[in-house]
Write a structure and sequence with these properties.
By secondary structure, the chain is α/β, with parallel strands linked by helices. Helix content is 38%, strand content 21%.
């Protein structure tokens, strides 16, 4: 079922605000995060810098006239940010929007979220929290480098719900060494029973630039076999579907009306304005799609007056924009196929190609599609192409052939 928040994504764009600081770096994490003591965080100065960037960039125009449908504060650990400073940024973003923003999410760690913080975020206008539970087994949490205990994770969820947040999501990592499929299913069932409205369940993935990546290269990282990870995936899926959750994206489950509107924007190829240290953004201007990334150096971003005359496209010059590229239409279509096929609804490739002005089915893509349709890995439902649910475990290979 499509709710109001999902509908707002169809004609608008998203806003992503990156808060780059954490208490410490988790060994599996490849997102931009900088370890820093809580008492030294530049709460108000960072809000000032974000507002300066917003003033310099302005709101996306062109096909985004409907304004933002979602705002997402990610990190790092945004729950370390003082709610008043975060709220100052949020109010300015909402004031600049032509219509009310339906979904406003803040990512939280259990170690920095309690009832008072959740209530303060709600009072600032936040209506959705995404809480990084990651697991409910002490040994696996320690392996993942998490600071919180299972009890603290569950308390954070309960505090968010008791504070009155209408939409609460939990993140869960499965496929960790020593975990059985039954244990993975039990963790998912426990989280669902707490009353959350959404759950993101990810297999442990080893990224090259992380501490886990280094340990893997040295042969020192214990991992489950691919078959064992697949068994955990299927067990989590079964447990959550039994609990009334819709498996609407390869790694995401939601109760009716509670799909993540912001992430749906990514998967459906919508624009998003990125703000903050290391933030990525993808927007449409008069010449087409542009992707950019801000500087990853907090000290540079925080310099007073830095954004006043900053170039928004001069990447590589030591300025505030680290990367900038124009996205060719063919590349944009490949990316939309990659993301759209992650959704249970699939993607209308012909419509996307027409919008971008490119050929939908060059010979190599057509042959790959026909082969996968014949095998039953792909399904053609009207105009939409989707991966068969039983083939989601092979999604990466299927998508790779179609890009």
């Amino acid at each position: 079922m499509t709710d109001a928040a999902e509908l707002s994504v169809e004609s608008g764009f998203g806003i992503y605000v990156h808060f780059p600081w954490c208490l410490r770096k988790c060994p599996y994490c490849d997102f931009l995060s900088v370890a820093r003591e809580p008492g030294t965080l530049p709460h108000e100065a960072y809000a000032d810098a974000l507002l300066a960037e917003l003033e310099r960039r302005g709101m996306p125009a062109g096909p985004n006239a409907a304004g933002p449908g979602s705002i997402f504060f990610g990190g790092g650990t945004p729950s370390l940010w003082q709610p008043g400073a975060l709220g100052r940024v949020l109010r300015r973003l909402c004031d600049a929007a032509p219509a009310p923003v339906e979904e406003i999410t803040v990512e939280c760690n259990p170690s920095s979220l309690n009832y008072d913080t959740a209530r303060a975020l709600l009072d600032q206008g936040v209506n959705r929290l995404s809480i990084g539970v990651q697991g409910l087994d002490p040994g696996r949490l320690a392996f993942l480098g998490r600071w919180h205990s299972p009890e603290e994770a569950l308390k954070a969820l309960r505090d968010a719900l008791r504070a009155g947040l209408p939409r609460v999501s939990a993140d869960l990592i499965f496929g960790v060494q020593g975990q059985t499929a039954a244990a993975a299913a039990e963790e998912a069932s426990i989280l669902a029973a707490e009353g959350i409205t959404h759950l993101s369940a990810y297999a442990l993935t080893i990224e090259a630039g992380t501490q886990f990546g280094q340990l893997q290269r040295q042969g020192k990282l214990p991992l489950l076999t691919e078959d064992a990870v697949a068994e955990c995936y299927l067990a989590v899926e079964s447990a959550l579907e039994d609990a009334g959750f819709d498996h609407y994206e390869i790694s995401n489950y939601a109760r009716e009306g509670h799909r993540a509107a912001h992430n749906l924007g990514y998967w459906r190829g919508r624009d998003y304005l990125g703000l903050g240290v290391g933030a990525w953004g993808t927007v449409t201007d008069a010449a087409g799609k542009v992707r950019y990334r801000n500087t990853v150096v907090p000290e540079r971003y925080l310099q007073p007056g830095a954004w006043q005359d900053a170039s928004l496209s001069d990447a590589g010059s030591g300025g505030l924009v680290r990367e900038w590229e124009r996205i060719p239409p063919e590349t944009a279509l490949s990316e939309r196929i990659m993301l759209g096929l992650r959704l249970s609804e699939g993607i209308d490739v012909d419509a996307q190609a027409a919008q971008l002005g490119v050929v939908a089915w060059p010979e190599n893509r057509r042959k790959a599609r026909d082969k996968r349709l014949q095998r039953g890995d792909l399904l053609q439902l009207g105009r939409r192409l989707r991966i068969a649910p039983e083939a989601w475990l092979r999604a990466d290979g299927i998508i790779g052939e179609l890009m």
